[in-house]
Amino acid sequence: MKKSELKQLIKEIIIKEFSGKDTQRIKDLFTKSAGDDTKLLRLAGNMAKSITDPQKAYDRGVAAKDMLDEPELQNIFFNRAKELGLDPDTKQTKNSPSTNAKGTIFLPSYPALALWDHELTGQISDGYWENSTPHNHWQFWTSIDSKLGTPEVKITGGRPVKTGYGITNKDLLDVVGDRMITGARLAKALNKQISRDEYDMAEYFAPGMLGHSPTTSEEFIKAKNEYMQSGRIRDYEKTKLTKLNDNLVRKYFNTHYNEKDMMRDLKQIKLAMKNISYQR
To answer: pLDDT value at position 17?
Structure first.
């Protein structure tokens, strides 16, 4: 094994022990740089420049420091936080007040909860709406809990500074719609509030993920086994696909959930975000 490959492997092993949105963004940098430190720092610099919220830049630096204590990498984000007005040493900022968010969003189905928990909160904080204003708009929505119930938000601390997000926008759904449907469909099949790992592994049900698009459980099981025995599969993929056991696959294919169902759930989420009450 080459030295660069070994270095990359060690980093990936360490990263697997951490979780969270900022950690995932740092992990993405390591994946894209593939052991090339120069490319890693260049990608990190581009990412830092795209961040407009000082707290987000600081949190990204903390994630880099916690995973792999490499000063050159973490300082890219800490310096960006300082440029935006936050002192990394005192953690004080002039223009990014804390929301002290406490509360719960209630959604009427497990598919809706899957969409909120594992897709929309990430799009609000680090994806589609990453650079929306006001720049601390994401803090409230990514801090509150989520539960099954009538669509509403009950707040016990803080307040949202933005409640309008175009979560049914075509340009968003054209990119992530397939994985949203598979994740929501799995939540319906399992009849529970699914985990992030379960949402991620459901993406293998999306068209083309296994080289073609199985339409039955038996076709999927066959395609999955062939892919796992191929030389194309990576270790992290093998772990996910192993968890997609035959019983789970059959539950998924016996469950109906399509784009129309997803749009209905997204509208319920939009309704909840507007239906706010304060429980002081």
So the answer is: 39
Query: What are the C-alpha distances in Å from 25 to residues 15, 18, 78, 156, 216?
Result: 11, 12, 15, 30, 34
Per the model's pLDDT, the better-predicted residue between 111 and 5 turns out to be 111
Residue 128, both tokens = 């589609």
pLDDT single digits (tens) 124-179: 988 888 878 777 888 899 999 999 999 999 998 888 888 889 999 999 999 999 99
pLDDT digits (tens, 9 = 90+) for 169-194: 999 999 999 999 999 999 999 999 99
pLDDT at 14 over 80: no
Contact 32, 2 (CB under 8 A): no
Yes or no: say if 106 and 151 are a contact pair by the CB < 8 Å rule: yes
Q: Are strands 102-107 and 276-278 parallel, antiparallel or unpaired?
A: unpaired
- Determine contact, residues 125/236, Cβ cutoff 8 Å: no
DSSP labels, the chain:
--HHHHHHHHHHHHHTT--SHHHHHHHHHHHHHTT-HHHHHHHHHHHHHH---HHHHHHHHHHHHHHS--HHHHHHHHHHHHHTTEETTTTEESS------EEEEEESSHHHHHHIIIIIHHHHHHSTTTT-SSTTHHHHHTTSEEEESSSEEEEEE---S-----TT-HHHHHHHHHHHHHHHHHHHHHTS---HHHHHHGGGGSTTTTSS---SHHHHHHHHHHHHTSTT--HHHHHHHHHS-HHHHHHHHTS---HHHHHHHHHHHHHHHH-EEE--
Q: How far apart are CA 265 and CA 83, in angstroms?
A: 40
Cα–Cα distance measured from residue 278 to residue 102, given in angstroms and rounded to the nearest whole number: 10
